[in-house]
Amino acid sequence: MMTENIFEVMLQNRRNLHAILTKTPKEKLLKIPEGFNNNIYWNIAHTVVTQQILIYKFSGLQMRVPDDLIAKFSKGTVPDGTATDEEIMVVADFLISTAEWLIEDYDTALFQTFNEYATSARVTLRNVEDAIAFNLFHEGLHIGQISLLLKQ
């Protein structure tokens, strides 16, 4: 059982990312500074996609974001330095909606099964609660990366 605080932390992280995404000039969002292999925008969109994979896909459920976003921002992808204003707004909307949907879906016991998954951080996720907790850690890593990129 997840505590309300885990969800509150998740929502606040997402609000913070939403503010960065919507208030940072597009050129800065898309810039890949020397010594980096990604940009602010990729890191933010990657958090949306990864949450869907870790929690919904491994629970055997339909992911709630389009396949093209999954393909573009999954682990192992690299940004091409472009994004339309429309795509940026879609990602901004998904930052909040996917967090809210997760809370609703968890509270209504939608997650009944889970396919165990060993992460690249050598953490094995055995149930949806593990996936939610690990996702919070994963988003924290990317928030740190975003903070570095914002200073460039």
UniProtKB/TrEMBL annotation:
Coiled coil: none annotated. SUPFAM superfamilies: DinB/YfiT-like putative metalloenzymes. Signal peptide: none annotated. The lineage of its organism: unclassified sequences, metagenomes, ecological metagenomes. InterPro entries: DinB-like, DinB/YfiT-like. This is DinB-like domain-containing protein. Residues 12-146 form the DinB-like domain. Pfam families: DinB_2.
